[in-house]
Structures are given as structure tokens and as C-alpha cells.
Amino acid sequence: MRSPRVVKPLVGISCCTKQFGVFGMPNHAASDTYVRATDLVIGGVSVLLPANGPAADIETLLDRLDGIILTGSRSNVQPTLYDGPPHAEGTPEDPARDGLTLPLIRAAVARGVPLLAICRGFQELNVALGGSLHQRLQDLPGRIDHSTPMQPSARVRQGKAHGLRVIPGGWLHRLAGASEIAVNSLHNQGIDRLAPGLVVEGIAPDGTIEAVRVVASQAGPAVGYAVGVQWHPEYDWQTDTVSRAIFEHFGDAVRAYAESARLGGVSIAAD
């Protein structure tokens, strides 16, 4: 007798708009690193979410998805979305991505769809829930340069860059089993005003917030799993136990949500 087929959960991965090819045609793109982490650690099926702004049907997406990964990117969240000053000339933006991800975040948190926000996605999470951003951390007194080292070697670009103080008793502390971890650093922007409903899970040596957990939304207490990290665990989950644990823990939440949705129940939270 044939055993029942295992239905894998669907994990949405946010895309950026990028120009490819000889004629610079616009494309929707996400790094293979997120797809591989979804395939090999989470055990889900990747669904690339196009950066189609107001054309996105958020409710239809959430009706079908069991989890969402918000990806990193070279582009930055538009400052008009958090009442910030205009970006410096030449700063890349992606309004179509913002038009998808910010309403998607708010709706996913309200529904309890598991959410893992990484780098730009971490910043989107803060802005979507009412926070603001520093645009260039390296220009602030007392801050270190968190940006990507301009090196051809991926090992150098993606290597551990600084320590991180882990808040005792939180989600990240339980995953790491340590009061300090080492992380890579590939960003210019960072959290300025922390959004209501977010709690801090990790802080860089210069005071930059680098990990958060959602405990409430505009609709009330958070009902599901929603966390964010400023660094890139998708780069080194094969060699770093904390990076792998982040995806494993998210995968647990995704599978629990998928099973709960089939049974008409509710999802688990990160705490």
C-alpha cells in the first residue's frame, strides 16, 4: 500500500525588481540562498513573490502561504514611508517592492502567518509596524561601519564582522544558548525608532538593534511567529549553528501553521 504523500508547506520569498540582460529588461528576483535554505533546512516549497506593488493581492497570497521570508537587498525602503529625509543621491530604492512587502507584513502579522525578516526585510518590518530608520549608520557618532566590505571574496564579504549581545530569556537567546554571538554585516541602514509591538532580541556593540521579535500589531497582540534579524543567516547556515537554528525554528513554525490551517486552528508564537 502506497504511503500518503507528504504535502510540503509553501514559503513566500520576497523579490526585488532588477534589470537583467542586454536590454535591461525588468525582472523579479530573489537570491538562490533563500531558496536553498527553504529547500534544505525548512523543508518547504519556495514561492517567489513578485514586487508588483499595489497590484499584489495580499489576501490571496496569505490564503495560500504557510510562511514568508523577507529578503535582503541593495535597495533601501523609501524614506517617505517613515517620514525620513530624502536619501542621498544614488541610493537605490525599490518602490514596487515596498508596495508589496509593507502591507504584506501588516496583514501577515495580523493573521499569524509565520514571518522571518532578514536585512532589508528586517528594516521593512520595523517601518511597516510604525518605526523609522537611520539611513547611514557609519555617519553617526559612535557607530561602526556595518556596510559590506568591498572585496571580491565572498568569504570576506560574508564573514563574521562583529559580536552581538543577545538579550537574556528571549527567542534568540533560546536558539543561541549564549549571551553573545558573531554575525556578518552587510547593511548601511538600521533601526532608529523601534516600532511599537517589537521587542529587542540582539544588539551590536555600538548599540544598533540587530534582532527583534513581534509581540503586538496595530490590530492587537501578535498571534503568530514573526521575527527579524539584520544580518544574513542564509549565507552560512551550513557552517554556523545559530544561522541554521534560525531557519529550523522558523521551519517548525511554518509546519505548525500549515497543520493548524488544515485543522482550522491557530499558529505558534516565537516566545
List keywords for this structure.
28% helix, 271 residues, alpha/beta, globular, Rossmann fold
Query: Strands of the biggest beta sheet: in what spatial order?
Result: 4-1-5-6-15-12-11-8-9
The portion of residues forming beta strands comes to 15-25%
Query: What is the CATH class?
Result: Alpha Beta
State the helix count. 7
Strand runs, count: 15
Output the helix-strand order. Answer: EEEHEHEHEHEHEHEEEEEEEH
Distance linking N and C termini? 41 Å
Overview of this protein structure:
The protein has one domain (10-135, 156-263): 3-Layer(aba) Sandwich (Rossmann fold). The chain is globular and about 60 Å long. α1 (32-42) crosses α7 and α3 (95-111) packs across α4. It has seven helices and 15 strands. Strands 4-1-5-6-15-12-11-8-9 form a nine-stranded mixed sheet, with helices on both faces. The model has no long low-confidence stretch (mean pLDDT 91). The protein is an alpha/beta fold.
Secondary structure topology:
Layout: E1 10-14, E2 16-20, E3 25-29, H1 32-42, E4 45-49, H2 58-64, E5 67-70, H3 95-111, E6 115-118, H4 120-128, E7 133-134, H5 154-157, E8 162-166, H6 171-176, E9 180-183, E10 190-191, E11 198-203, E12 209-214, E13 216-217, E14 220-221, E15 226-229, H7 241-263
